[in-house]
Structure formats: structure tokens, C-alpha cells
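Quick log. Single chain, no ligands specified.
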Amino acid sequence: MGKRKFDPFIIVGLSISITAMFVAILLHGMPLTTYVDIAAFLIAIVAPFGAAFVSVPFEYIKDLPNVFKVIFSSEDVDYSELIETLVTTAEKARREGLLSLENDIQDIAEPFLRKAIQLIIDGTDPEIVKHIMINDMEQMELRHLLHKKFFDEWGYYGPALGMAGALVGLIAALSGAEDRAAVTHGVAIAFIATLYAVFMSNAIVLPMATRLDMKNQKDILIKTLMLEGVLSIQAGDNPTLTREKLISFLPPKVKEEIAAKKEEVGSK
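-> predicted structure:
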């Protein structure tokens, strides 16, 4: 597994969205303070955040600091290196037997792969190994999906509660119909709340949910490669067959990169 590092591109994307909004406001010749309203902020941004808390169990909510770290980071995975590690392990297992892998198991940093290899060393039936490891993958995916659901719900409730903010503003405007300033302020709250909610949901929150979904798909692919590799090792497959089997799971672009790397090594 690659090392997780800060991804500057998410800051670039957020900066573009926010800057575009500010520039659009300034182009209309209005001061930014015109668009600042605490009441609208509370209704359109804080309230949807609280509503999202209600929709997801607390055990997943308390992971939010780590989830934000995941959102703002990226992980470079060398699929070629992972596959070659599994192929090398397959070669050793065929040559020296599965028990020979016990000496190497402590050097495996990835807990999922270490657990799978330990199971085959212990002589666990292949179907049971597959069942146990798929259960682990499903629990990982459930955790990831619930984290994503928090952001989905936050983004979903935002525009709806933004409309509630609009109603609050209109009620304030109508209740002070005799006071022109009160009417103006009430209408401003109505539109500002809607603006806050729509922008927050569509420019910030929902893109974060999409980012979490992509990371989940990547993690599933990595775990699938590990599981299929271990099952192939246990079955005593030819290492070349193991390599081709694992490569078949990869997206076309990654396959091309691996093929290019193989040609580069072969030409030396």
C-alpha cells in the first residue's frame, strides 16, 4: 500500500469554486458584506450539518476527523509492485511450501493481506478463507459507505433547509411590511440562505462525498487483488497464471502502464 499524503488538488478545486463565486459577486458591483448574514448561515449550513448527524450512527460520526484527513489526502498505489509481491510469494510457496511463508508474514505491513496469508498457512479451507476475507471487505465497505452517507445527507438537506431559510426571511419581510428596511432585510435573508445552501451542497459537500466513493472503490480493488492472489497461491497456481489473473482486475489504463513498464525492463 502506498503512503497517504496531502492532495493539493482538492484545495485547488475548492479555491476555484469559492473564487468564482466571489468574483461573480464583485462583478455585480456589490460589496461582499451584502452577502454576509449570520441567520442565513445558521439555517442553510449549520442546520443541514446537524441533520446529517441524525442520519448516521454516532460510532461513524466520531470518525469524521479521520474522514476529513482521507478526503484531503491521496494514496499512490503501485499495482505492479503489489502484483509482483504476490507473484513472488506464489513462487516461494510452490517451491518451498505454504509453511515457508510463516517466516515472512511479520514483514507484511497490510493487515488484510497478512491475515489472508496466515489463514492459508494454517491450512484453512479455501472457501472459508474467501468467506472470512469477503466479510472483512464488506465491513470495510459498509464503514466507508456510512462515512459517505454523512456527506450525501449533508448535501441533500442543504437545499431543503435553504428553502426553510427563505421562508424565514419571507415571514420576517411580511411581518414587517410597514417597515421598508425590515422588508428588504427579510427578502435578503431569503435569497442569501438559498445561495449559501445551494453553493455549500454542490460546490463543497457533494464533491467530497464523490471523492470518498472513489477512494472506497480503490480500496475494494486493492483488497480484491490481495484476496485473489492469496487464493491463487493456496491453489498452487502457476505464478505466471497468478500474475495474469490479477492483471485482469485492473482498469485498462493501469494495464497499459504495467505493460509499458514490463517492456522497459525487458529492453534493458
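The chain has one domain: 4-267.
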